Amino acid sequence: MKSVLITHADLPLGRRIAKVLWHDPKVLRILALGEGAIPRVFNSYRDGVPPRFVYERIDLARQRSVSELFRSKRMRVLGVDSVVYVPRHGAAPEGAPVVAKIPARTAEARLVLHHAQESRSIRSLIALGSAFVYKLAPSNANQLTERSELDLDPEVAPELRSWIDCDMLFNAEFASARLRVLLLRVPTVVASGGFVYLHPGLEGTAGLRVRPAGFDPLGSVISDKDVARAVRTALHTDMTGVFNVAARELLPLSVLGRWTRRPCIPVPGPLLAIASGAAAQFGGERLRGRLEGPYLRYGMSLDTRRAAEELGFTPRYRVGVARAGDGVMRVEAVAI
Question: Residues 96-128, buried b or exposed e (16+ Cβ, 10 A)?
Fold first, then answer.
């Protein structure tokens, strides 16, 4: 039986993972962390004495908050032995939180990993990472395995640099004798209703996006339900290391953007270069990254054989354009 701590359980992927683990008979207790008020979906989970589900508000980018949590009586009483690190995702305002000029996502990964290492009770850490950390060659034929090169170019956009920093933090712990660390690299995540997460160019509120004219890269996708299933599978194994997880489908950026209410307008490259330079000059680092990222030009597919062979995980949902319950055509995930 596992007692699990889940970060950012108030955000869409965190809610989905918490729901799947709540219905898992092998999970004894859940400590769900979030920055906002408890999501309404969790209200029915808190029944029972002692409760099987506990929700706590916390700023995971603050050292004092995280330190107090991991040393608290609540952690001891709940017997937390596993951590599911769900990174920040979804819409975020320009000028997202930073701690000592470190992006909040990177600061959170450092703190959660450090305190999991220091804990006497925690034995496993399952982390969600991004497949966009891979270096993309100029083509649509990038099939990436877990051993593919990461994009360590010093000029990489800040959003990608944060993902790469987190990835390397977890990579450094794979040889740990005490703490089992498993990293799931996921591509663009599609949720019901045409929502999309973890794509550096599309994440955030609906509205127009741009892409370089002449490019329409193919990309791997995965359902949020399959992400939660992959986390559950990883939680109950003794494996460590990196695993790519993705659906079987590939979608062009134009299709993904259009059918998630984020149409990607082709713009001549020279104009994008001018806009990117202006954004960099005036401090719009997030905007600059969305104008010139390699994911806007070059496609990628993920080799998921290791997850299938060693974790026993295969996707159950097909991602594509379908008519939703309200009759509107969107990118949706449908059970295979």
Answer: ebebeeebbbbbbbbbbbebbeebeebbbbbbb
